[in-house]
Structure formats: structure tokens, C-alpha cells
Design the sequence.
């Protein structure tokens, strides 16, 4: 579900592209102390994992299936800054090597999935983490709810971009309603599978989850 | 791991485009796509000219049309959105073959179909005529952040390993009669994804140690500097200027 060329006009694409570049620059700076030479192969492997995880098809409703987007999953597992860098890398490779997502829309796709999806989703996850108990179940629920919400937020971000500089044709409200409607269903699947994956990693290798609360790591 | 294995989208039948330096191709593709997206949708002829230019480059690169068409299938999900626009669109309506369609929606759908197809075509040509290491070199010569191209390099190098691992896990699940029909049955899928993450992460740690023992210092050795590609840059400038002129003419004659 990457935006191809022609959906959004050039000024809007360039504007959101600049916002994405700024966010990437900030994430690189924040991740710099963590992203030493040792972490670069690791980040590459995590990016390959996100790419493979996007091939995980799960049933959505009667006969249709959706696939994982992985923004919140990556952010919860390796931290928000590296997570958003990894999602950006996945999107760049998909646009340049696989022609998935338009080259002129790369900035828009990075904004929706790495900025709104991964960073925004992680914000929800960490806010929920303060309310929910610091247990495996608590973190699993927080990751799941954050992932499901982030998909709907990404759909809203697309609707906003379409309202500003879209190809037009339908009113902003119609586009937003259609996008959010479809992504509510996808979000349920995304949330369930993200929560369960985080739960599975927490029970096998809790030390691999970014900033695991001590109570969970040693429980 | 053979090169062709990593990059099945690359065509191993060198045509003219294969010999062009990657940074020239990357910059030209990006600017060409921007020119296409900036063209006014009313200028039908402009899209014809863009299409003919791409057809000429496809022929020069000796890429079979069927290869390009198959690769374009990836755009279909989002194009369905475009197909619905004339039905859900607002404003004036026209009757086409007994269907009442929105004029604005038809224009929007045409705009998306034309530009998405041309944009995908251009990037398919880039991927089909450039090996991934070349693509990364091209991006870093265009001053992409080093961390990003380094992560991309590791991602692409291990992509087939991780995807292959996932496919084996999927076969294992299926051979144990796992065929999820509803969301309630996705537990095993999630458990498999979780172990895929752990395996990828642990492989990352092993890769780092293996590289360290071979003298890795955090930066990959520099490859030979690019041959001066002045002629190629000039040819690229002609293509980009031509595309920009077509777009400009489109706005004038609109």
C-alpha cells in the first residue's frame, strides 16, 4: 500500500519529503550513540526482517487478507529512532529496487510509515506503557493497541496529503472515510499480530526488546 | 550467493542502459519522474511523449516489454482506488455507457493512472539495468547519508536469506495443516514472526563478529572512483531538459 506517482502533486510531495528528511536527520542524530559500527549490520538485518514480515499475510475478513506494515513492531523491538530509520530504508529499497511506491512519493510514504507509523506509534506505545502494568501482558497490549492505532493514523496522514495536494475527484471527507474504513480492519490485524509477536519475543529473548522493564526481563 | 540470485529484477542481457553510471541513472530517473508528475493532466500529448521516450530507453536497454508489464502488477492495489474515484467523485457527472460518472473523478483517475504507470516504468528501467551494489554506490555518490546506504547494503545482502528463512517457516506451518481462516487463528503466524525476528537479530550479531574478525572497522572499503562520466551526464541532461520542456509546454498549451 505504498503511494505511487501521480496521487499527490509535486509541491505537496516535496513539502512532506522535506519533513521526512528532517525527521530522518533527527532520528540519525538520536540513534548515533547507539548506531556504532556494530549496529549497522544489525540494523540491516532488522530491515530485512521488516521486509520479510511485510510478506506475512493474515486473514482480515471473509476471503480477503492484509499484510503487516511493521512500523510499531520495529519501533518497539529496536527503539523508535532506529525503528524509523529501518522503515525508511525498507521504503527506499522498495521504491528503487522493487518499484513499490513512486519515487516522487517516497517522501510521502516515509512520512506516513516511518514518521507517523513508527515514531507516532511508539509515542502511543510509551504513553500506554505508563498506564498499563509493566508485565509481559501489559507490554503486549500496549504494542498491539499502538500498532492498530498507527495504521489508522497513517491512513489519516494520507487523507491529509490527498486533501492538500491530491489528484482530486472526491471530497476530502469521502477519501478520509474510505481510507479510515479500510484501515480500521487492517489495523485490527496489525494490532493483533504486532502484540503477539512482541509477546513471543518477550517470552523467548526479553533482552532483545528495546528498554524492556526490568520486572519483565527478569520475571 | 550469486549476484543474480540477490536481484532477480535485474536483466542480465546488457543493453546500452546497463553501461550508464548508476549515479547518472538514479539522478535522471528522479528528475524525470518529477517532470512527469508535474505535467498538467489535460496535456494528453505530453504523456504520449514521455511514454515514447521510455519506450525508446526500454528498447535501448533491451528490456522485453513483457518484463516491464509483469513488474507493473505491483501498482494494482493502489490503482483500484483510482478506478473507484469516478464512481464516488463529486461535482458534474457524465453518462458513459449507461453509468453516471463524476467528471472530476475521471480526471483524477486518468491523472493517477498515467503518472503512476510512467513513474513505475521509469523505476523498473532503473532496477532492471542497475545491480544493487551499483545502485547503492550511485546513491552514495549523490551524497545520500552513509549510514543509510550502509544499512541498505546489509539489508539487501541478507534479504534473500531472511525471506528464504520465512518461506521455510511457512512451509513448516502449512505442512502441519496450518491454514488460518480467521484472525483468531493467527497465533502460530505471530510466534513464527517472533522467532524470525530473533533469528534475524542473532544473525546480525554473528555477521558483525565475522566481519570484525576479517578486519571490519565500521566502514566498507572504498571502491575505485567512478570514471568521469561527462558524456553520460550530458546525455542525461538532454533527457531531463527534454522532459522538463515537455512539462512546461504542457502548461503553456493547456
Sequence:
Amino acid at each position: 500500500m505504498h503511494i505511487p506517482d501521480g496521487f499527490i502533486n509535486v509541491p505537496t510531495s516535496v513539502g512532506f519529503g522535506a519533513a521526512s528528511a528532517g525527521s530522518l536527520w533527527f532520528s540519525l542524530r538520536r540513534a548515533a550513540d547507539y548506531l556504532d559500527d556494530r549496529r549497522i549490520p544489525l540494523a540491516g538485518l532488522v530491515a530485512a526482517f521488516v521486509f520479510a514480515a511485510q510478506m506475512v499475510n493474515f486473514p482480515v475478513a471473509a476471503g480477503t487478507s492484509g499484510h503487516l506494515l511493521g512500523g510499531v513492531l520495529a519501533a518497539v523491538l529496536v527503539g523508535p529512532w532506529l525503528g524509523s530509520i529501518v522503515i525508511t530504508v525498507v521504503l527506499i529499497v522498495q521504491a528503487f529496487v522493487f518499484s513499490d511506491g513512486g519515487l516522487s512519493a517516497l517522501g510521502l510514504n516515509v512520512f506516513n510509515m516511518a514518521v507517523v507509523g513508527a515514531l507516532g506509534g511508539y509515542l502511543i506505545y510509551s504513553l500506554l506503557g505508563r498506564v498499563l502494568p509493566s508485565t509481559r501482558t501489559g507490554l503486549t497490549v500496549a504494542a498491539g493497541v499502538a500498532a492498530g492505532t498507527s495504521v489508522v493514523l497513517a491512513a489519516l496522514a494520507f487523507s491529509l496529503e490527498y486533501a492538500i495536494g491530491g489528484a482530486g475527484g472526491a471530497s476530502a471527507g469521502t477519501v478520509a472515510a474510505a481510507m479510515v474504513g479500510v484501515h480500521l480492519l487492517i489495523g485490527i490485524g496489525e494490532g493483533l499480530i504486532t502484540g503477539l509477536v512482541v509477546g513471543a519475543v518477550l517470552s523467548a529473548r526479553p533482552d532483545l526488546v528495546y528498554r524492556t522493564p526490568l520486572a519483565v526481563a527478569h520475571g | 550467493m550469486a549476484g543474480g540470485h540477490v536481484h532477480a529484477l535485474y536483466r542480465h542481457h546488457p543493453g546500452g542502459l546497463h553501461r550508464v553510471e548508476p549515479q547518472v541513472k538514479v539522478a535522471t530517473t528522479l528528475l524525470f519522474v518529477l517532470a512527469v508528475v508535474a505535467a498538467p493532466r489535460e496535456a494528453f500529448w505530453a504523456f504520449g511523449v514521455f511514454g515514447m521516450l521510455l519506450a525508446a530507453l526500454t528498447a535501448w536497454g533491451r528490456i522485453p516489454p513483457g518484463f516491464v508489464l509483469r513488474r507493473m502488477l505491483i501498482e494494482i492495489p493502489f490503482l483500484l482506488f483510482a478506478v473507484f474515484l469516478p464512481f464516488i467523485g463529486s461535482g458534474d457527472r457524465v453518462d458513459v455507457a449507461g453509468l453516471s460518472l463524476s467528471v472530476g473523478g475521471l480526471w483524477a483517475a486518468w491523472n493517477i493512472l498515467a503518472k503512476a504507470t510512467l513513474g513505475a516504468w521509469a523505476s523498473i528501467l532503473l532496477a532492471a539495468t542497475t545491480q544493487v551494489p551499483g545502485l547503492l554506490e550511485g546513491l552514495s555518490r549523490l551524497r545520500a547519508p552513509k549510514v543509510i546506504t550502509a544499512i541498505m547494503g546489509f539489508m539487501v545482502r541478507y534479504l534473500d536469506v531472511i525471506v528464504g528463512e520465512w518461506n521455510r517457516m511457512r512451509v513448516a506451518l502449512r505442512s502441519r495443516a496450518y491454514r488460518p481462516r480467521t484472525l483468531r487463528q493467527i497465533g502460530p503466524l505471530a510466534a513464527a514472526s517472533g522467532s524470525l525476528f530473533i533469528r534475524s537479530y542473532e544473525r546480525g550479531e554473528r555477521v558483525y563478529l565475522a566481519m570484525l574478525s576479517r578486519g571490519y572497522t565500521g566502514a566498507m572499503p572504498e571502491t575505485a572512483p567512478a570514471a568521469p562520466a561527462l558524456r553520460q551526464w550530458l546525455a542525461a541532461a538532454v533527457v531531463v531538459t527534454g522532459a522538463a520542456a515537455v512539462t512546461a509546454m504542457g502548461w503553456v498549451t493547456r
Notes: The mean pLDDT of chain B is 85. The beta strands of chain B are 93-96, 99-102.
